[in-house]
Amino acid sequence: MINVTQLGYAGVNVVELDSLQHVLDKVCGAEVRRDGERLYARVDERHHRLAFYKADTMSLAYMGLEVESLDALRAAENELRGKGLEVTRATAAEREERAVLDMIHLRGPDGVRIELFFGAVLEKLPLKPGRAISGFVTGELGLGHVVLACADRDAATRFYTEHFSFRLTDYIFWSEAEATFLHCNPRHHTLALMNPCFGMVPGQFNHLMLQVKSIDDVGRAYDIVLEEGIPMVMNLGRHTNDQMTSFYVKTESGFAIEYGYGGVEVDDHDWDVKVFNAPALWGHALQA
To answer: Rounded to two decimals, what is the model's pTM?
Structure first.
């Protein structure tokens, strides 16, 4: 089994960049760089954690899963090939664009591009956030989390837990939705897998989450969203399972950005897997 330490980065194909840049910069407080039809968001000492590419349709372009060394990356490549999976080594241009020392990639369930990498490039200058915030929670916990719709949620869960070191955190089953939450470090979940509910189709990217260090960061961002009339998927609320206090901004491309504070961390030595029948303790009401 391949030991994945965190979600290091993610890339998303988007249909527009202007309003997304404003949300990332002035609402989330990321350091945003625009390069033609590409947008990069920096949230810590790394060159960037998020990349967005202008495209005709929205989709998750890739997710970057970090391993602990170059030797671990080589071993992962050999292990995956030995299991009959098709693995490709990154080109020099791909390594440069991702700002990593080395990377391999393969296709996972529903065609999701999974990139395994080591050696994220660190910036010499401190983070220059788009607005005053206390900072983002990354470090050993990684970027945050991504949520995907799957044609076969159980099969997708087996793929990530049998090939990689993802562990089961918990489940939420509500209405027509069935969601499985997986972790690879103390963050409550790095990856959540759902059935194709609420109009989603298999392989669809639902949302990404950014966690900040203060509830005041969330509150001030929420004020900006309300004042500017920025669309939301869900209003301010608190989740049942990870107990994150957050809200969800709706991007023009169709995916959401969850912006939150205070998530529970997992200790594998005494963690009990639970099943919840609702996603929110309070709030998180769907917005028109």
So the answer is: 0.97
The pLDDT of residue 288 is above 80: no
Residue 68 pLDDT level (bands cut at 50, 70, 90): very high
- Final residue of a structural domain among 71, 91, 120: 120
State how far the Cα of 150 lies from the Cα of 179, in Å rounded to an integer: 10
Asked if 98 contacts 115 with a C-beta cutoff of 8 angstroms, the reply is yes
Residue 179 token pair: 């969601």
Q: Is 194:175 a contact under the CB 8 Å cutoff?
A: no
Give the angle 214-8-276 at the CA atoms, nearest 5°: 60
Residues 170 and 93 grouped into a single domain: no
Residues 153 and 67 in one domain: no
Among 120, 153, 168, give the residue marking a domain's end: 120
For residue 99, the 8-state DSSP code is: T
Whether 126 is covered by a domain: the verdict is no
Q: List, in sequence order, every residue forming a beta bridge with 193; answer none if it has no partner.
A: 148, 180
- For residue 7, name the pLDDT band (cuts at 50, 70, 90): very high
Do 40 and 50 meet the contact criterion of CB atoms below 8 Å apart? yes
Q: Half-sphere exposure of residue 246, counting CA atoms within 13 Å on the CB side?
A: 28
Euclidean distance between CA atoms 249 and 195, whole angstroms: 22
Q: 211: domain range?
A: 139-283
CB 210, CB 259: distance < 8 Å: yes
For residue 75, give the 3-state DSSP assignment: helix
Same domain, 146 and 209: yes
Together in a domain, 87 and 147: no
- SS3 category, 83: coil
Could you tell me if residue 40 is left (phi over 0), alpha (psi between -120 and 50 degrees) or otherwise beta?
beta
